[in-house]
């Protein structure tokens, strides 16, 4: 990975490590990638509030730092791609909840 990608990858884990469950992977799904930092603050607040799996502190960063949050979303996409590449020949290949279609859409670009 390039140095920039490495820093983005580290940012993901520093930000999301407090609540480590499978839901944070969903930030890398296409529906979250369509969201961008250009949304108005009211829409952004609604978006961040809808992410019920975020902690209070993570929601605060989401609402007040839209550019950082969009970087996290892009970084998660990179992390999912890298995970799928590294585990491509294994039984578990970064899928969640036995739903291969969850990440199947991500691969088709």
UniProtKB/TrEMBL annotation:
Does the keyword field hold Disulfide bond? yes
Gene Ontology molecular function terms on file: cytokine activity; frizzled binding
Q: Give the residue spans that cross the bilayer.
A: none
List, alphabetically, the Pfam families matched.
Answer: wnt (PF00110)
Show which residues constitute the signal peptide. 1-22
Keyword annotations from UniProtKB, A to Z: Developmental protein, Disulfide bond, Extracellular matrix, Glycoprotein, Lipoprotein, Secreted, Signal, Wnt signaling pathway
Domain of life, per the record? Eukaryota
Where does this protein reside within or beyond the cell?
Secreted, Extracellular space, Extracellular matrix
Secreted keyword on record: yes
Q: What does the entry list under GO cellular component?
A: extracellular space
Query: Tell me, what is an example of a GO biological process annotation in this record?
Result: cell fate commitment
Q: Name the principal localization, coarsely classed.
A: secreted
Its biological purpose: Ligand for members of the frizzled family of seven transmembrane receptors.
Question: Mind telling me which PANTHER family this protein's record contains?
Answer: PROTEIN WNT-4 (PTHR12027:SF101), WNT RELATED (PTHR12027)
Per the record, the similarity remark reads: Belongs to the Wnt family.
Give the protein's recorded name. Protein Wnt
The source organism is Adineta ricciae
